[in-house]
Amino acid sequence: MEESRLPPGQYVPRGRPVIHYGRVPRFKPETWDFKVFGATASGEEHCFTWSEFESLPRVTRVADFHCVTKFSLMANEWRGVAPATLMAAAPPDPGVSHVMIWAEYGYSANLRMSDFAAPETLFAMELDEKPLSAERGHPVRIVVPHLYAWKSVKWVRAIEYLLEDRRGFWEERGYHNVADPWREQRYSYQEEPGEGPP
Ligand SMILES: Nc1nc2c(c(=O)[nH]1)N[C@H]1C(S)=C(S)[C@@H](COP(=O)(O)O)O[C@H]1N2
Ligand SMILES: [Mo]
Questions:
Q1: For residue 181, how many other CB atoms are within 10 A of its CB?
Q2: Whether the Cβ atoms of residue 117 and residue 161 lie closer than 8 Å to each other
Q3: Domains and CATH numbers, the chain
Q4: What domain of life (predicted)?
Q5: Ligand 1 centroid, distance to 150 Cα (angstroms)
Q6: pLDDT along the chain (198 residues), means of 10
Q7: Sign of the C-alpha dihedral, residues 148, 152, 154, 155?
Q8: d(Cα 146, Cα 12) in Å, to the nearest integer?
Q9: 0.85 cut: is pTM over it?
Q10: Which long-range contacts (CB under 8 A, 24 or more apart) does 42-47 make?
């Protein structure tokens, strides 16, 4: 028998819910930029304009997506830039252990480097062969399908290389620092030693 694709406690809803905290930002290509800062290898901040970011090579990944509120969206076809492509253009210091993903309006989520660099993680610009809609994160969202979806930050504007872990928006508000849906790592009180920042 095929193994279940649904992590414990999740269900497949009718329709495809959209959720986020706060407003949907307006995309202005002339002023939009994408920064890579923090512990870069060179010590310098890297900054991509929209036309630079848009012309980075893209790959396609099909993945399910699990929100901690228990709905899952199955078989999404994402297309966009692999983290490895971005790291080649703006390399991290060898000591980087975590990455903070920053969005419009200060929303953020922290990732372990291993989750950021995982083969299924993607800076998605298209969903199901169409550009992302505004409410799904246009022009760029990160997709980290193997973690709860609050880590899949929409409207990404920057990544920050970290030499030490730090909590993001929901991780500071009682949600699990790692967020593996297969282990139901929903809340911070479930964290084991070593799973949270020092
Ligand atoms: N910038 C930003 N990204 C975000 C959020 C948010 O509030 N702001 N919410 C997260 C949560 S909790 C979920 S479940 C997913 C929802 O993605 P969807 O709207 O494409 O279903 O976006 C994530 N990314
Ligand atoms: Mo969510």
A1: 25
A2: no
A3: 33-166 (3.90.420.10)
A4: Bacteria
A5: 5
A6: 80 95 97 98 98 98 97 97 98 98 98 98 98 98 98 98 98 98 98 95
A7: positive
A8: 16
A9: yes
A10: 42/91, 46/89, 46/90
